[in-house]
Amino acid sequence: MTTTDTGWSLRGRLAVLVAVVGLLLLGVAVAEAVVATRSRAHIDAVLNQTGPLRVQSQELLAVLVDQETAIRGYALTGDREDLVPFDTGRQREEELAVSMDQLLASYPELRDEFDTVQQRTEQWRQAVALPVIAAIETGGAAAGQQLLTDQSRQQFDQIRVAVEVLQNGILEVRDEAAANVRSTSNLLVLLLVIAALVVLVAGVVLLTSLERMVIRPLTSLAGQVREVAVGDYGHGITGTGPPEFQRLGEDVDAMRQKIAADLAEVRAARERIEWVNTQLQKQAEELTRSNRDLEQFAYVASHDLQEPLRKVASFCQLLQRRYAGQLDERADQYIAFAVDGAQRMQRLINDLLAFSRIGRLTTGFTDVDLNRLMTEVAAQTEPARQYADAELTWGELPVIRGEEPLLTNLLVNLVSNSVKFRRADVPPKVHVSARLIGEDWEITCQDNGIGIEPEFADKIFVIFQRLHAKDAYPGTGIGLAIVKKIVEYHGGRVWVDTDVPEGTAIRFTLPALPADVEAAKSAHGSAAVGDAADGPDAAQVGTDAAAVRADDEVRPGDGTVGAEAGGDSERPSAVAGLPQASGGTGGMKEAVG
Q1: What is the pLDDT of residues 199-254, one digit of tens each?
Q2: What is the dihedral sign for C-alpha 464, 470, 473, 476?
Q3: What is the CA radius of gyration of the chain?
Q4: Residue among 373, 372, 390, 370 nearest 382 (CA)
Q5: Mean pLDDT over each residue of the chain, to the nearest integer
Q6: What is the SS3 string spanning 183-240?
């Protein structure tokens, strides 16, 4: 659906309106600049030219009068002191002449009148003042008085008249300049009013145009869209007004058509989803029933199956003790196989039971100090470590939220694995450390054991997965699966770090307490702490509980837990504090229960 563009576009109309208004305002601005320049010139004439001229002309008249008065006083007394105003008056007259000559440069008609004043003043001085002074100096005061006649007085009156004419001319020029200032000011006001009218008219035109070209078409388009929004997806949408809005209407209608088609598909998909949900609900009910059956199986395994298994193991051991050496060698071997199989079956049942109880039988989360927990771990693993001449160290560990029995079992499994999977003729060294990364503690159990190949890094956490024969390294293959389940139950993850130069490092994360995260942010000014390596450098963490002490540094050549997927579920019973028949992971039973 296409529409032929007719008329000017909205952008073109707005551009024309803005251009016209801009040109008008530019013309008004240029006119205002010209008028303002003239107004400044007239104001300068009033303030800096005609005003000072008027003042100086009045001062000039006063100076001339002082000179005439000094001549008359000198003629009466003959005292030379009375002639001082005449001399100072002449000096001041010369200064005023220079100043007024500069101010009259723009007024030639006033300059002619000023020249007339100077000429008449000079004529009076040559005809009256100087002869009187000369006569008094030669003939005394009487001689000077004879020269002061009515004719000399009339000659000075002509100076007064010339000065008065000059002052009147200056006043006329000043009045003319003031009138020009008023006219230019009025013109400026008029131009401002014109500019305001242009802006007002442009605003009215703009509002009217927006109402007709924007608001009405948009209102119409919005009304059509609302009709579609309430469910009338078959209602066509057309745009009105400028070409842009017409194209917008076409685009919205195309979108309506696409939405209508998608809704039809959604309805069909919804029906399929409802059918799938029904099937999923049935499967969920089946899964719930299956879980109940599994729980029942765990109960049977822990009670009903162990009773006959204990009998088999006990009677096989009795046969072994009573008839050992009395039968042939093959019979002794068969009895040994039966005893070993019964014991391994019992350990498998105990480990499965412990594995299934993780997360179901809970003692509740509390604040657990891992430093104190490591002391308990060291005590539980002491017999095995003494047997292997193993060394266990740990750095400063944090306080976390979790179940203490489960965390104890977690660390006992890791440490026991590290001791068990050791290299021949190399004393095992196990180190546990922690560092804060973001909002999680990353805890590492590292040893100098036999290590693990990278391709088997994920396989060791799978239940019953073994990388070695049970004759080489005993165990049920469930220890690290228990470790993984405990870590995930506490909201963390566990993995094998294959980048260590020797051995393997098993790392797992546990959520940090909010106080530790805030302390780290305050100490480092960032939301992420923990990019420092374990060892002495980790002491830079500041107040973090994960800072590893320098004396607990991991020594070169340290590795991680051995490469046995089953963990240390086969550690000696004295380590776990259980009867011989229960095996190592029977400790899980006590930890969970």
Answers
A1: 888 888 888 877 877 788 888 888 878 887 787 777 777 877 778 777 787 888 88
A2: positive
A3: 58
A4: 390
A5: 76
A6: HHHHHHHHHHHHHHHHHHHHHHHHHHHHHHHHHHHHHHHHHHHHHHHCCCCCCCCCCC
